[in-house]
Amino acid sequence: MKKHEDEIVKQKHGSAVVVMKSGEVYRVDGAKNRVYPDYVFEDELIGSSITHNHLIEETTFFFSDDDSALFEHFKLRLLRQVDEQYASVLDRDSEVVEPIDFNPRESKDFEQYWNSKLSKRAKDGAYGYKRHKK
Q1: Who contacts 56 (Cβ-Cβ below 8 Å, separation ≥6)?
Q2: pLDDT for position 86
Q3: Which of 9, 23, 53, 120 has its CA 20 to 30 A from that of 88?
Q4: Which residues, listed in sequence order, are joined to residue 88 by a DSSP beta bridge?
Q5: How many angstroms separate the CA atoms of 44 and 52, rounded?
Q6: Does this model's pTM top 0.85?
Q7: CA–CA separation, 28 and 14 (whole Å)
Q8: What is the structure's pLDDT at 17?
Q9: For each successive 10 residues of the chain (134 residues), what is the average pLDDT?
Q10: What pLDDT is recorded for position 22?
C-alpha cells in the first residue's frame, strides 16, 4: 500500500486504493474533500483494506468520524490515511494502541483531543490504532 500512498498523497482531490479480500486492487478518485469507496463497492468492501489521502486544506491530520464509521460498518481489515505530515492506521489484526497522555481538564489542544478520542475508540473496539509523522 505504501507505493500507492506515495501517489495519492500528492493528489488535489480525495483518492483511495482498495484491496479486496480477493486481493484485487482498485483505485477510486473522489471529490475535493472526500472519496466514496463505499458507494462504488457497497457490501463488497466488507473485510477489505483501504488507504486514502486527506488534503490538508480540506480536512484534519486525523481519521474523521466518517472514516471511523466506514471502518466499523464494513468491518474493514485495515484503514490507512495519509497526508503531507502523518500516516495513520486502524487495524483489526492488531490490538496495539499508542498510549495517549491527555487530560481534557488540563489541555484544550485539538490535536491531542482528537488523537486521544481515536485511541479510546480503538481500545473500546479491540483494534489497533497508530499515527506517526512521515
Answers
A1: 83, 84, 85
A2: 87
A3: 23
A4: 81, 131
A5: 17
A6: yes
A7: 8
A8: 97
A9: 89 95 96 91 97 80 86 96 90 82 73 82 89 84
A10: 96
Q: What are the cell numbers at 1?
A: 500500500
Q: Which three cell numbers stand for residue 94?
A: 492488531
Rounded Cα gap, residues 52 and 33, in angstroms: 11
Q: CA 54 to CA 77: how far, in whole Å?
A: 20
Instruction: Check residue 99 and give its pLDDT.
Output: 66
Q: What's the confidence (pLDDT) of residue 96?
A: 81
Instruction: Give the amino acid at 131.
Output: R
Amino acid at 112: Q
Please list, in sequence order, all residues whose beta carbon lies within 8 angstroms of the beta carbon of residue 97, skipping any fewer than 6 positions away.
119, 122, 123, 128, 129, 130
Q: Going by C-beta distance under 8 Å and a sequence separation of 6 or more, which residues neighbour residue 114?
A: 60, 62
Question: Distances in Å between the alpha carbon of 61 and those of 18, 33, 43, 93, 132?
Answer: 20, 13, 28, 23, 10
Nearest to 17 by CA among 39, 35, 34: 35
Interior angle at CA 87, CA 84 and CA 93, nearest 5: 165
